[in-house]
What does this fold into?
Amino acid sequence: DQQVKQNSPSLSVQEGRISILNCDYTNSMFDYFLWYKKYPAEGPTFLISISSIKDKNEDGRFTVFLNKSAKHLSLHIVPSQPGDSAVYFCAASYGDTGNQFYFGTGTSLTVIP
Amino acid sequence: NAGVMQNPRHLVRRRGQEARLRCSPMKGHSHVYWYRQLPEEGLKFMVYLQKENIIDESGMPKERFSAEFPKEGPSILRIQQVVRGDSAAYFCASSQSRGQETQYFGPGTRLLVL
It folds into this structure.
């Protein structure tokens, strides 16, 4: 039961342009969302998070947008850099516990110099 | 470097053997989580522990898998009588507190069962 979905397995973007990674979820109880970046043979690295009381959170080149009615979030990277090439996972949790993160299957981003 | 540490990074076992995976959380973190990533899949939650307590093991397979986080020392994920389907990357994460707190991940242990 995949409650968090990333329907694009891969994405290629030219250096300097915007990268938009998408994530959909099915559980309306989710109220905390995160994006992680993962290089091969390494663990996921936390990028940015957003609570359901917000619809946007920005940190440098990274912005996460949350559309609760559509159960959709997206990560924007502007401008994209070759070092951003990695697999990006979105994750979600809910409730008082929030212990368990539900992960999407990842989108592999390639930034072309 | 006070990040999450996992060892070994790679582990090869034959079917029927035991696998022990270790995780030391970030300094100051007392909450540990284990996740498994099968090929071509996302990370799947297995278990959440605090010192000497298993808080949530809803993602753990019912048999052969166990986890502990003793008062002293690292957290251990133990897989008995491994089978080929156990081959995966196992990630440990830690957080400072309970609840919706960012989890920081270690580099993972890649288990290969021959």
Observations:
- Chain A has a mean pLDDT of 93.
- The interface with chain B takes residues 2, 4, 6, 31-32, 34, 36, 41-46, 49, 51, 89, 91, 93, 96-106 of chain A (CB under 8 Å).
